[in-house]
Specification:
By secondary structure, the protein is α/β, with parallel strands linked by helices. The chain has 2 domains: 2-78 and 181-263, 3-Layer(aba) Sandwich (D-Maltodextrin-Binding Protein, domain 2), CATH 3.40.190; 85-174, 3-Layer(aba) Sandwich (D-Maltodextrin-Binding Protein, domain 2). Helices cover 40% and strands 20% of the residues. It has 12 helices and 11 strands. It has helices spanning 12-22, 40-46, 62-65, 110-118, 133-139, 152-155, 167-174, 193-212, 214-224, 231-241, 244-247, 250-263, and strands at 2-8, 31-37, 54-58, 69-71, 77-79, 85-88, 101-104, 122-125, 145-148, 162-166, 180-188. Strands 1, 2, 3, 4, 5 and 11 form a 6-stranded mixed beta sheet that branches. Helix 1 packs across helix 8 (193-212). The longest helix has 20 residues, at 193-212. It is globular and about 55 Å long. The relative contact order is 0.20.
Length: 274
């Protein structure tokens, strides 16, 4: 059996996509999957070395890895008019953050790249593990604002903070309503075309299984614990970031990724695996 190493984030959408492989729910046709969970910024950095055969990564970091990885046409997260949120202790205009200290989840993330396009600011890298760290930094006055991704964009109001700007709203206005590409899955090119196609099909089958058995998957996620502890919150989060667009980007999703990468200044080929 051929072993395929997979690295993804510990967030609900990534675990949802990988559930069938983690729980042996589908026939893997001679492949064994070893799945590790790593926070987003670290995921991007690890893929630069002898990275796993399949890795989740920020779309903004893909140009650094394109020589070795090919984007998969599924398994990503996109915001359909919504996305990461800039938060603060009190209401501010986005322009007021110019030159101010803003907590960000990492300099490799798509959220950081988008916010740089929106306003000039001083980034303060604030890891998203532990989950509460960005909220603590804001309360302590270590930063003037924070950029929350993943589950934090659903819970910041519970923590007493207010929205300054939604990156997905800004992107949709700038890009004719296209979704905002945040994270994607990519596969090592050196696997060769046959293995790439076979592994891609298995990953797609895992996503399809999760979507087909969504209620069971939600129960499974809640039992595992995490930042979102209620069914309604997990359901809301999956509706945003693990949906039919995750199963297949479609023409609009692919165009959004191409626009994003070109805006970054990436001039290489943008090819998707089968």
């Amino acid at each position: 059996m051929r072993t395929i190493r997979v690295s993804c984030s510990p967030d609900a959408d990534d675990l949802f996509m990988m559930r069938a492989l983690l729980e042996n729910r589908i026939d893997t046709k001679g492949y064994t999957f070893e799945i590790d969970t790593i926070e987003t910024n670290r995921l991007n950095q690890l893929a630069e070395g002898d990275g796993p055969e399949v890795s989740a990564m920020s779309i903004a970091w893909y140009p650094k890895l394109a020589a070795h990885y090919q984007l998969l046409p599924h398994g990503g997260s996109m915001g359909e008019g919504y996305g990461p949120v800039v938060i603060a202790k009190e209401r501010l205009q986005l322009s007021e953050l110019a030159g101010k200290r803003v907590a960000v989840p990492g300099l490799t993330t798509s959220a950081y790249a988008v916010l740089r396009w929106m306003v000039p600011f001083e980034p303060v890298v604030t890891p998203i593990t532990p989950y509460s760290r960005i909220f603590e930094a804001l309360r302590a006055g270590e930063v003037d604002a924070g950029l929350v991704i993943h589950e934090g964009r659903l819970t910041f109001e519970d923590e007493g903070f207010v929205k300054v700007a939604d990156l997905g709203e800004w992107w949709a206005e700038e890009m004719d309503g296209l979704p905002l590409p945040l994270g994607g899955n990519a596969i090592r090119r050196d696997l060769g075309p046959t293995a790439i196609a076979e592994v891609s099909a298995l990953l797609r089958a895992s996503i399809a299984d999760a979507l087909k058995h969504r209620n069971e998957a939600i129960d499974w996620l809640i039992a595992r614990g995490g930042a979102l502890s209620t069914r309604s919150r997990v359901d809301q989060y999956l509706g945003m970031y693990a949906n039919q667009r995750t199963l297949d980007y479609g023409p609009a999703g692919r165009t959004a990724i191409e626009r994003f990468l070109r805006k970054l200044g990436y001039e290489g080929d943008i090819d998707f695996a089968p």
